[in-house]
Amino acid sequence: DGGITQSPKYLFRKEGQNVTLSCEQNLNHDAMYWYRQDPGQGLRLIYYSQIVNDFQKGDIAEGYSVSREKKESFPLTVTSAQKNPTAFYLCASSPQGTGELFFGEGSRLTVL
Amino acid sequence: GIQVEQSPPDLILQEGANSTLRCNFSDSVNNLQWFHQNPWGQLINLFYIPSGTKQNGRLSATTVATERYSLLYISSSQTTDSGVYFCAVRPINAGNNRKLIWGLGTSLAVNP
Q1: How far is residue A56's CA from residue A34's CA, in Å, rounded to a whole number?
Q2: Of the N and C termini of chain A, which has fewer Cβ atoms inside 10 Å?
């Protein structure tokens, strides 16, 4: 089945710990994205990558880091520098051309 | 930058009713998508519709690019239609940047 897989779906971490969220796609899409959503809010772009080994900061990149070593994978690390990391994180991908966006099921991070 | 406004912000319907959601944008776009976020947080891609009209079952969408708005029609609403509907656009002057600009969403509740 083609799609975007995010893991884990739920994650708890203690303050001061880094955590890495996984995002894998088998749609052969060039671009991948990470969004953050807080309760009752819209989506805010954290980072995006349009090709392998290249990525750009979005609107709220501080406290986050990414890598794009493979076309299929775009992991997001939430570092201890992120002041309010508790949120719902959504990964997306899009093909070249239309740029039509498709989403994974999301990862819910709670910092205790 | 481009502004995206969705209306109404909230909507309550009785099962079986029809509704129209609106998305206004302040500049020309070459990508417009409608998404449904279900109560579990998953974002479902409803329509990729930078212009014209599309239909998918009980849902249809129309984008009038020259007048900078898009409409999402839901007919014979069901409780499973509940959730938040987002409109997202990409400005035509964005060049190679595939970043989407998001509206704040319309929160829909369909009562049985």
Answers
A1: 11
A2: N
Q: Are B42 and A103 in contact (CB under 8 A)?
A: yes
- DSSP strand E in A8-63: where? 10-13, 19-25, 31-37, 43-51, 54-57
Contact (CB<8Å) A42/B86: yes
Contact across the interface for A101 and B100, Cβ inside 8 Å: yes
Dmax (CA) for chain A in angstroms is: 42
Give the mutation candidate from B90, B99, B101 for the A interface (greatest A CB count, under 10 A): B99
* Cα dihedral value B55, B8, B84, A2, nearest 10: 30
Alpha helices in A1-112 (DSSP H): none
Residue B95 has pLDDT above 90, yes or no: no
Tell me which residue of B40, B32, B38, B59 sits closest to B109, measured CA to CA: B38
Does residue A89 contact residue A107 with C-beta atoms inside 8 Å?
yes
A13 touches chain B (CB under 8 A): no
Tens digits of per-residue pLDDT, A7-40? 999 999 998 899 999 999 999 999 999 999 998 8
Q: What is the average pLDDT score of chain A? A: 93
Instruction: Supply B106's token pair.
Output: 């319309």
Q: What is the pLDDT of residue A75?
A: 98
Sign of CA dihedral B11, B14, B15, B16: negative
Chain A contact for B4, CB < 8 A? no
